[in-house]
Amino acid sequence: MRQKSRTVHEGVQNTLQSVDYNECIYQCILTKKKFIGKGPRYIYLFKNHICIGKSPKMQIPERQLVINTDTRISWQYSKSMLKSITFQVGSHSYEYFGSNEQLREIKQKFALYAFQMKIQDEYQAESVLGKGSYATVLELTNLYNHQQYAAKCIDQQKINEKKNGYRQLMQEVETMRILSEHKHQNILQLHELYIGNQNYYLVMELAKGGSLLSLMKKRSTLFSRSDIRIIMRQLLEGLEFIHSFNIMHRDLKPENILFMSKELESLKIADFGLAQSCDQHPYTYPKCGTPGFVAPEILEQDSEFARYSTVCDIFSAGVILYVLLVGEPLFEKKDRREQLELNRRCEINFQRFSQDQLDDVERDLMSKMLSKNPHHRWKATDLLKHKFFIQSEDQIENEIDYPKQVNMAILKKSAMPTFSKNPFMQSITRDKALTTRDQSQTLVTRPKNCTLIMQTNLHFDKSSQEQIIPLEKLTNFIGSFNLIKDEINQ
C-alpha cells in the first residue's frame, strides 16, 4: 500500500513522498515522553530512510528521515543500560524511549544503515593496527560484551578535500553493507557505523590470524597442494558471493586475504576500499588495483568511461594461485613501469616449469584464470568445479612441501606497492592486514613506495620509499593516534 509522508532532512523540509511499507526492513514501538506529543511512536526502518508515526503505517508519518551522514543516531545511557534513542538531523533532534533489551535490538538492526554518534560510549580504543594518509585502523574493545573489533577511522576533512573521496567512502560502506546484510563465511563483516567530530568509523570483525602475505613470509616452504586447495576454494567461494551482487573487489592480493584464527579454513576477503558495482557507471576510479595483480583489461583502459566485469577479480585470484604454487611473482621487475607493462601484456609461459612444480591440472586451472582475454576467463562458480579441487588419493600421497624458490622475491619485500588506492588509505601498512592484530609492530608502519594516480597517466611518488619509520620519527604518528583515541575514549 503506497501512502504519503513528510520528509525531514537538513532542517525541516515538507516534501511529499510515497512510502511503501512492504519494503520495511524492521519495525518497533517506542515512547515519546515530552509533554507535547507524548505517547507511543511506531518506528519503521527502510534501506534509505526511517519513518516515525503516531499510529501504525500512517498515511502521513510524523517524521521521515533520510539515511545519510547528515542523519545521525545517538544513544542515552543510565549506568550501563540504554534508555533512549535520539535521531539528530541538523539542529533538530527527536528522542524516543524503550527498554534496554528493546533498544539493543534496535541498535543491532540500525547498525549497518545509520551513522551513530559517541563511539566512546560503546568502545575502548586499545592499539593502532595500521595508519595511512587518510585513515587509521584501531583495535577496539566493546565495553558491554568485551569482544574485540577493528575500526577503520577515516579523516573527514581529508576525504572531503580529495577528489571523489567522499563518494568512494560511501561506495565502500554500501558494498560492505550489502555483503554483511547477507553474510558469507569468507567475507569480513561490517559491524557498525559511527561518526565523530573528526572521523568516520567503520567497525568490523577483527581478524587475529594475520594476512596470507604474513603467513607466506613466515614459512620456510611453500604451502602444500592440500593447503593451497583450502585457501583457493575459500577465496573463490568468497568471490562467487561478491560477484553474485555484480560487485568487483578490484584489489585482491595476499595482504587483503585475512584469517580469523590460525586455521586456514578461517579465510576472509577484506578491504573493499576500491570495490565497485558494475552497474554504477562511470566507475569512480576506472584504472585501479595493485601492480602485478591487476587484470590487463584495467591497465589497458584509456577512458574514464571504461567498462569491465567481475572476472577482473578472477585474474587477481589467479596471480595469487600462481604465487602459492610457484613461489615467485608473476610479473616482477625492479622498475614499476616495466612491471606494469609486463602486467598489461600478460605473456605467461607455464612450460618453463617442470611437471613436479606444475602438473597439467594446475596449468589448466591457471590458464582458465589468467587468460588475457576476459571473455575466456572462467567465473568463480565454474572454477570451483575444476579438477584441481577434486583431490584423488594418489595426489594426497604424492604431495610434498617444496622448498622456497631462491627468487621468491615477493616474500622478501617488506611491502607490495599499490596504485590508485582508496583515497583515504594511500599509505596504509602493507605487510599487515587492515584488521590484523600485531602487538610487536603496533606503532611501526611501512608506507607504499609508489602511487598510480587515477586517470590515464602514471605518476610515481619517489619520495615515499619503502621503509620502516624510525622510532625517533614516530612522535607525530603516536600523537595522531592519541587524538583519535581521545575522541573514542573521552
Structural overview:
Among the domains are: 98 residues, Roll (PH-domain like); 226 residues, Transferase(Phosphotransferase) domain 1 (Transferase(Phosphotransferase), domain 1), CATH 1.10.510.10. The chain has a 5-stranded antiparallel β-sheet with strand order 11-12-13-15-14, with helices on both faces. Strands 3-4-5-6 form a 4-stranded antiparallel β-sheet. A 4-stranded mixed β-sheet has the order 9-8-7-10, with helices on one face. The protein is built from 13 helices and 19 strands. The two termini are 47 Å apart. β11 and β12 form a beta hairpin. It is of the alpha+beta class and 490 residues long.
Number of strands: 19
Give Rg in angstroms. Answer: 24 Å
Return the CATH architecture of the domain at 212-437: Orthogonal Bundle
Number of helices: 13
Structural class: alpha+beta
What are the segments in which pLDDT stays under 50 over at least 5 consecutive residues? 1-13, 404-481
Q: In the CATH hierarchy, what is the class of the domain at 212-437?
A: Mainly Alpha
The N- to C-terminal Cα distance equals 47 Å
**How would you describe the shape?**
elongated
Q: Give the CATH superfamily of the domain at 212-437.
A: Transferase(Phosphotransferase) domain 1
Q: If you average the pLDDT, what whole number results? A: 80
CATH topology (fold) name of the domain at 212-437:
Transferase(Phosphotransferase), domain 1
**What fraction, in percent, of the residue positions are helical?**
25-40%
Query: What is the spatial order of strands in the main beta sheet?
Result: 11-12-13-15-14
Major sheet description = 5 strands, antiparallel
Portion in beta strands: 15-25%
